[in-house]
């Protein structure tokens, strides 16, 4: 795998299921870990398919501060990228880079 060889961008609308307490890196950067629930209908091979999933996510900096103020059940539109949870884990986690709160929609 070559560094910088591909696109890694995720756009997702989902509902905040749970979030941990805001913490800070040793450099003082705010960090928020959470779980996002997504439910939608997508078209796959020409047929509609209901998609429901829970996605572990992490936000740093301003995005972490925005997420700190969000209550469980809040619907958000997020952009970010996927990365392994750690060097020792291949489990994917969404790294949120921007958050937009969606008014009046609780269905993700």
The coarse silhouette is: globular
Helical coverage, percent range: under 10%
Q: How many strands?
A: 6
Instruction: Note the beta-strand portion.
Output: over 45%
CATH class category? Mainly Beta
Domain count, please report it. 1
Structural class: mainly beta
Rg computed from alpha carbons, rounded to a whole number of angstroms: 15 Å
Q: Helical segment tally? A: 1
Average pLDDT over all residues: 91
Quick tags:
globular, 108 residues, 6 strands, mainly beta
Summary of the model, kept short:
With 108 residues, the chain is mainly beta. It has one helix at residues 62-68, and strands at 10-19, 23-24, 30-44, 47-60, 75-86, 89-101.
Structure notes:
With 108 residues, this protein is mainly beta. It is 6% helix and 61% strand. It is built from one helix and six strands, in the order E-E-E-E-H-E-E. Strands 1-3-4-6-5 form a five-stranded mixed barrel. The mean pLDDT is 91.
Topology (SSEs and partners):
Layout: E1 10-19, E2 23-24, E3 30-44, E4 47-60, H1 62-68, E5 75-86, E6 89-101
Parallel strand pairs: 4-6
Antiparallel strand pairs: 1-3, 1-5, 2-3, 3-4, 5-6
């Amino acid at each position: 795998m070559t560094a910088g060889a591909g696109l890694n961008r995720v756009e997702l609308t989902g509902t905040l299921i749970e979030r941990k307490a805001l913490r800070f890196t040793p450099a003082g950067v705010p960090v928020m870990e959470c779980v996002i629930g997504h439910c939608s209908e997508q078209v796959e091979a020409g047929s509609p398919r209901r998609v429901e999933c829970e996605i572990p996510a992490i936000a740093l900096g301003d995005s972490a501060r925005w997420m700190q103020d969000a209550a469980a059940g809040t619907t958000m539109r997020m952009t970010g990228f996927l990365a392994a949870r750690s060097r020792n884990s291949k489990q994917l986690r969404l790294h949120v880079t921007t958050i937009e709160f969606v008014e009046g929609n609780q269905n993700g």
